[in-house]
Amino acid sequence: MNVLNFINAFFSDNAHWQGYDGIPTRVLEHIQYTLMALGIAAAVGLPIGLLTGHTGRGGNTLALIATAARALPSFGLMVLMFVLLGLGLAPVMIPLVVLAIPPVLVTTYEAMRSVDPAPVDAARGMGMAEAEVLFRVELPVALPLILSGLRSAAIQIVSTATIAAYVSFGGLGRYIVDGLYQRDYEKVVGGATLVAVLALATLGVFWAVGRLTVSRGVRRSG
Amino acid sequence: MNGLFDLPSDLQNSYWGLIALHLREAMIPVLAGLLVALPIAQLCVRLRWLYPPVLWVTTVLYAIPSLAFFVVLIDYTGLSETTVMIPLAVYSLVVFVPAIVDGVRSVPRETLDAATAMGFGPVRRYVQVQLPIAAPAIIAGLRVASVSSISLVSVGMLIGNQGALGNLLNSGMIYNQPRLIWLSVVGTAVLAIVVDAVLIGLRILVTPWMPRGTRKNARPIALKDAAR
């Protein structure tokens, strides 16, 4: 297979493992963009999703916001922000956060709504305060779904952060964009492999987080 | 004087031409994905043990970034529209399979038994009972697949200007014309919203039995697909 040869050549070349354009640097940059965007999206989406889900109000508004945000093309938005704001972290972060908020927000809301009302009533009957009901009853039960929302947000960020290279930023997209310009297909395929591996690693991380944080009782019933 | 919709000559297309091209590059893969997903989903409904592994494979496929997918395909299909359309078809397929399986499975047992008792064969039961009842779920999947496909076509610009409206982004950069970038972003967003609206209209058309005013049934579906 042609592609496999390219991949092998890319990864066995020592020059690709060091320096400013080395694999470790680019991978770290990519992870940095991803964590930052995911952090902002979670900081915005999780509280709103938890609250609206807890009270059960605002579902239609959320659906509307999510549909509108999804209609915005991330790539175009990134180029537009770059032209408007210039070189900086904001033109990369804005499209990534816009991309990540709908899955976080809507899944969190849905997860909270799908919690069985019986234990919630029981918790209230036992005299739990609203905050306790939210964090000690609803949140643990809703956690698997909430994590799946964060997971799909993270994966979309990882794949879209690649495009940041087109507007002069770092990350693994550098290899793909530079490689395409330099007609260096080995570099292109190497970069693509790294992004795909990083995306799959993200899946793995979320699987592990789910194993660690979701209570055993919830897992068994789900 | 330059008009709002004038484009650089090297794009060899008008703005409306690009919109038509964008629509084609985005929707052919969605329809292809739907056609392939229907039999796969039916298989998963029939053979229950098959669904978890299929779901696992689709999750992994969906995680592969579009740009990575495009560039690996360049080796096989070149810098062509096909290279853009194949990954989009795969992503659509990945959205459709769980949507259709959930939709078809949501058909109540009694309804199926009633159809059988009325003398429906398996094929007729599938086409006339299961599919129509699953229609809202399928169209919800269709909405997600179409909107994300429309957004992703732009990325095709990076591989030999195959991005339709996305090509305007590059022109805007190299000719220093922010107007072209606005045209691309607004055009793509409007296209996505219009297609979404058409699909909502389609759902209302094919599911005349669903309540319209309160939309109590419609909301969870709209929300769930928005979450993907």
Give the helices and strands, then pairings.
The complex is a heterodimer of chains A (222) and B (228).
Chain A (H helix, E strand, L loop, with lengths): L1 H11 L10 H33 L3 H13 L2 H12 L4 H24 L3 H9 L4 H32 L11 H9 L3 H29 L2 H6 L1
Chain B lengths: L14 H32 L4 H13 L2 H12 L3 H25 L3 H9 L4 H32 L13 H8 L3 H29 L11 H9 L2
InterPro entries (chain B): ABC_transp_perm/SBD, MetI-like, MetI-like_sf
Membrane topology (chain B): Multi-pass membrane protein
Main location (chain B): membrane
Please describe the structure with a list of short key phrases separated by commas or semicolons:
heterodimer; A: about 220 residues; mainly alpha; MetI-like fold; 10 helices; about 80% helix; about 0% strand; B: about 230 residues; 9 helices; about 75% helix; elongated
Provide a brief overview of the structure.
Helix content of chain A is 80%, strand content 0%. Chain A is mostly helical. In chain B, helix 1 (15-46) runs antiparallel to helix 6 and helix 6 packs across helix 9 (218-226).
Low-confidence stretches of chain A: none
- For the secondary structure, the number of strands of chain A is 0
**Any idea what the CATH architecture of chain B is?**
Orthogonal Bundle
**Shape by Cα distribution of chain A:** elongated
Helix content of chain B: over 70%
The largest pleated sheet of chain B is described as:
none
The chain pair forming the largest interface, with residue counts per chain, is: A-B, 53 and 46 residues
Which fold does the CATH topology of chain A refer to?
Answer: MetI-like fold
Order of helices and strands of chain B: HHHHHHHHH
Given as residue ranges, the uncertain stretches of chain B (5+ residues, pLDDT < 50) are: 214-222
Helix content of chain A: over 70%
The CATH superfamily of chain A is MetI-like
Q: Biggest sheet of chain A, in brief?
A: none
CATH topological fold name of chain B? MetI-like fold
Q: How many domains is the backbone of chain A divided into?
A: 1
Query: Structural class from helices and strands of chain A?
Result: mainly alpha
The radius of gyration of chain A is 21 Å
The class by helix and strand makeup of chain B works out as mainly alpha
Mean of residue pLDDT of chain B? 85
